Fold:
Amino acid sequence: MNTFFCSDNSRKVGEDIIGSASNHQTYVLVECPTPWVSEAFHSKWVPENLRILVEEVKRARLPIKFLLIANSFSHKSDYTTLLIYQKQEGLSNGYSKREYRLENIQQVAAVVKKYLWGRNPSYEIESTATRDILVCTHGSHDKCCSRYGNPFHFHATTTVADLNLENVRIWKSSHFGGHRFAPTVIDFPEGRYYGNLDEELFKSILTRTGDITCLQKVYRGWGILPNSIQVLERELIFRYGWDWFNYKVAGRMIEPSADKNTIRAELIFEKPDGSQYNYQARLVKDETQTVKLKGSCNAKQELVFAKYTVASLWLTSTNFVTFSA
Structure:
C-alpha cells in the first residue's frame, strides 16, 4: 500500500513555496456538484458541450483556466453559478469579476463562448464586491487535496461564519496545481495563491492582521505576476506590510541570464494616493532552497524545483502625485 503523501514530503524537506502561483489571463469557474473524477470535466454532471469547449480551449493553448467549484448547497441548488475572472491590464490589484446565474449547467458553454467572443451574455447578475476563496478538495486527482483540503474547507467555512464576513464565499475547487502544498487556496478577485494553511494563518489572511511574516511559509505568489518574480513581490510585502494588499502592481522580467541563474526584474506599484514606485531587483537561483522531489502523490519520478532569492533590490524612481486644494 502506497502511504506516500506529497504534501507531507514537501513540508518535511522545508520547501519554500513562493513562485508556484499559476499565471492565467482568465479563470472560468463553473458550479458543479461533487463528486468529481480525476479529469474534472469528465465528471458525471458536466455536459458534453462544456467538455468539448474545455478541450478546444486547451488545444488552442489559450491562457484560460476552467475549474469546477461547489459549496455545501450546490447539489440542491435550483441554479448554476458561473464566475469569470479576467486579468486587468497594466497596474492592477488582480482580476475583474463577471457573475452569471444560469438555470442549469447545460447553459454554461454558450455563455462562456459569447464572453470569449467579446459579446455580452445574458444571465449576468449585478456583481457585488465579494471575495471568492477556492480550496482545492480534488481528492480523485491527488489524495493530499482530499486529506488536507476537505477538512480545511470545513474549517474555513466555519471561520468565515464566526467572523461574520458576509462578503466572503468559500468554494471547493477542482485541481489548480500545487497539490504538494495542500491545503492550497486561491483568493479572488486578487488571484493570490496560498498553501500549507491552517486556521490561524487563514484568519490573518482573511482579516489582514497579525504578523506579516506569517506569509513566509504559506504564500505561493500572486497569479498576475510571472512565477520567477513572485519572490520579489513577497519581499516587498514584508517591507510594506498589510498595506501592500491595497496597492496596484505590475511586474516584468527585464532580462534573464542565458543559464537562468540570475534574473533582472522590475516591479512597479501605485499606492491609493496615486504615488508610484519603481523597484528593480537581481534574482539569483538559490541552490540551498532548490529541491528535488515528487510533485504529486502519483508522480513516478522526482523533479527539480528551482528557487530564486532576491540578491539585491533598489528603488529606481518615485512619482508623487500632489493634489491642489
Q: What stands out?
A: Residues 321-325 have pLDDT under 50 and may be disordered. The CA atoms of residues 127 and 302 lie 44 Å apart. Residues 6-319 form one domain. The first strand starts at residue 26 and ends at 31.
